[in-house]
C-alpha cells in the first residue's frame, strides 16, 4: 500500500513539471492523461522507461527515490544534480531533465497502449 501511495505522489510531482515544460503543447498530454484508466501507472511506466541517469536526476530534482519504492526525499537543486553527476554547470543538469520530461510526454501521448488505458 505504501509503495502505491509513493508512486501516486511521484506521478503527482511529474505532471506539473511535464506540463510546464511542454508549454503550449501541454493540451495533448493532458487530454491523453484524462483518457487513462489509471494515469499513475501510465506515468510511472513512462518514467521507468527513461535511462538510469534521467531517472536519478528527475527523482532527485522532484524529491523521491525510485530505487527505494519511490520514498519521499528532499528535492535537490540543479547544482546538486550537476555535482552528483560531475557536470560542469547546473544548466547541463537542467537540460537533461527537460529532455527527459519531453520523453515522458512523448511516451505517454504516442504509445497507443497508454492512450487506450491498456
What does this structure look like?
By secondary structure, the chain is mainly alpha-helical. β1 and β2 form a beta hairpin. 27% of the residues are buried. 70% of the residues lie in helices and 3% in strands. The model has no long low-confidence stretch (mean pLDDT 88).
Strands, helices and their partners?
Blueprint: H1 2-22, H2 26-34, H3 39-48, H4 52-62, E1 64-65, E2 71-72, H5 78-84, H6 90-110, H7 112-115
Antiparallel strand pairs: 1-2
Helix pairs in contact: 1-2, 1-3, 1-6, 2-6, 3-6, 4-6, 5-6
Task: Name the descriptors.
7 helices, mainly alpha, two-stranded antiparallel ribbon
Can you summarize this structure?
With 118 residues, the protein is mainly alpha-helical. The chain is built from seven helices and two strands. Strands 1-2 form a two-stranded antiparallel ribbon.
Tell me the β content: under 5%
Q: What's the number of extended β-strand segments?
A: 2
Total DSSP helices: 7
Helix content: over 70%
Mean of residue pLDDT values? 88
Major β-sheet profile:
2 strands, antiparallel
What is the terminal-to-terminal distance? Answer: 22 Å
H/E series, N to C?
Answer: HHHHEEHHH
Give the spatial strand order of the biggest sheet. 1-2
Q: Unreliable runs, pLDDT <50, ≥5 residues?
A: none
